[in-house]
Design goal:
Elements lengths: L1 H18 L15 E3 L7 E11 L2 E5 L2 E4 L4 E8 L5 E6 L1 H13 L10 E4 L3 E9 L3 E6 L12 E5 L1
Parallel strand pairs: 2-5, 4-10
Antiparallel strand pairs: 1-8, 2-3, 5-8, 6-7, 6-9, 9-10
Bound molecules: copper (II) ion.
């Protein structure tokens, strides 16, 4: 009797997994609430252009808000149209505040985080990313002095 119950539980478990949203397996190597970086060619990748520009000494990031669906793979193409170094880091507000604090303490530390890119002046970088979780996230520049003053972009995943 007990064996039958376990078998039934296993079958219903399988059915549930098949009905779950089609989100590819999360790589446990990464631990970002916003999702994970993905490499290579994907059947369906959404190209998204983000531009950092200088408007009279003030950094303007466009667009200010982006909306995606859970599971969506996005190829960000981020252009830094300014004369200074900036960063594009994807995360929750808490994650980005933590990274900003780390950079403030150790400004010379080279960042190896895979949820962002460092942009040299007048350059374009790319980041292919899959949004695994729903929620509100942000993209920000966490360079010391910038993190405190520059505007941030908002990402909503539904
Ligand atoms: Cu910046």
């Amino acid at each position: 009797m007990l064996r039958i119950t376990i078998a039934a539980a296993l079958i219903s478990g399988t059915t549930f997994a098949a009905a779950a949203p089609r989100v590819p397996a999360v790589d446990s190597h990464y631990n970002y609430a916003a999702g994970q970086p993905v490499k290579g060619k994907w059947k369906s990748t959404t190209p998204v252009a983000v531009v950092y520009s200088d408007k009279g000494g003030k950094l303007v990031i466009t667009p200010e808000q982006l909306k995606f669906k859970r599971g969506q793979v996005v190829k960000f193409s981020i252009r830094n149209d300014t004369a200074v170094k900036h960063e594009f880091v994807l995360g929750t507000t808490t994650e980005n505040l933590g990274h900003a604090e780390t950079m403030r303490i150790s400004p010379d530390l080279e960042r190896h985080e895979v949820n962002g890119r460092v942009m040299k002046p007048n350059s374009t970088v790319e980041l292919q990313w899959q949004f695994i979780n729903t929620g509100k996230f942000q993209f920000a520049c966490l360079v010391p002095g910038h993190a405190e003053t520059e505007s941030r972009g908002e990402v909503i995943v539904e």
